[in-house]
Amino acid sequence: MLSMYPACFFHEEDGYSVVFPDLNWLATQGDTFEEAMEMAIDCLAGYLHTCQIDGDTVPTPSRISDIDPKAVARELDPEAPMCEAIVNMVSVDVAAYAKQHFEKSVRKTLTIPAWLNTAALEMNINFSQVLQEALLAKVQAR
């Protein structure tokens, strides 16, 4: 399912700042507009994915026409000089993005004693599953 939120893109001297007014002023940045958009997608996906995992309520997105980037800029820093600013919709399929970027498996190399390897192979133990279960237990115990 596609999620879309308006974001303010502020063109500054050293690149672009991006702010999501609907999402507690969630912010990111990039050196170019394209990089700022990529970072905005990543930021939005991470925020929404975390909300889903934590069971938090996600605010309803505003209409793009209801966002005034100059008002957002003044609220963030009333003293800052006004820079070029636009509002753009940022969209992401959170489930697909999370699967590709947050939940993908990584390969780990480890060393165990030869006798333990032989015993585990004889018992048809799935090494990856055992390691994942043990790591999860350790992480959850913290």
Task: Give the secondary structure arrangement, pairings included.
Layout: E1 2-12, E2 15-20, E3 26-30, H1 33-54, H2 69-76, E4 84-93, H3 94-102, H4 114-122, H5 127-141
Quickly describe the structure.
The chain is α+β, with helices and mostly antiparallel strands. The protein has helices at 33-54, 69-76, 94-102, 114-122, 127-141, and strands spanning 2-12, 15-20, 26-30, 84-93. The protein has a four-stranded antiparallel sheet with strand order 3-2-1-4, with helices on both faces.
List keywords for this structure.
alpha+beta; 5 helices; Double Stranded RNA Binding Domain; 142 residues; 4-stranded antiparallel β-sheet; 2 domains
Structure commentary:
The chain has 142 residues and is α+β, with helices and mostly antiparallel strands. The protein folds into two domains: 2-102, Double Stranded RNA Binding Domain, CATH 3.30.160.250; 107-142, no CATH class. Helices cover 44% and strands 23% of the residues. The protein has five helices and four strands. The chain has helices at 33-54, 69-76, 94-102, 114-122, 127-141, and strands spanning 2-12, 15-20, 26-30, 84-93. The chain has a four-stranded antiparallel beta sheet, sandwiched between helices. Strand 2 (15-20) and strand 3 form a beta hairpin. It is elongated. The protein starts with a strand and ends with a helix. The model has no long low-confidence stretch (mean pLDDT 91).
